[in-house]
Amino acid sequence: MNDAQDLTTLGVTPFSFHSDQPLFRVNGGVSLHEALHHASDLLHVAKQLAEDAAMTKETDRYAWASHYLQEMVKAVVDDVVKVLDSPGNTQ
């Protein structure tokens, strides 16, 4: 049984695919608390950028920035879920 405070990211979740190859990957060994806190911060900024892109003409750069931030958030959350769903974790 793992103590929730000791759980860390696996570092196996890739993101930002180009020609079917991932350019980036979530780093392993980061506490799940820190990883989720960072994901929340990234998601907040992505939401703000998406809102600006929706409200202002010629802001496609905001939409793309939001897209990439959301891709990073999804990878972090997916990596955390893999840890929480692993057979050895009973939390």
Quaternary form: single chain
Largest sheet: 2 strands, antiparallel
Q: SSE order in H/E notation?
A: EEHH
Beta strand count: 2
Helix count from the secondary structure assignment: 2
Q: Mind explaining what this structure looks like?
A:
- This is DUF3077 domain-containing protein.
- This protein is mostly helical and 91 residues long.
- The chain has one domain.
- The chain has helices at residues 32-55, 60-85; strands spanning 14-18, 21-25.
- The model has no long low-confidence stretch (mean pLDDT 90).
List the helices and strands and how they pair.
Blueprint (H helix, E strand, L loop, with lengths): L13 E5 L2 E5 L6 H24 L4 H26 L6
Antiparallel strand pairs: 1-2
Keywords:
DUF3077 domain-containing protein; DUF3077; mainly alpha; about 90 residues
Short synopsis of the structure:
The chain is mainly alpha-helical.
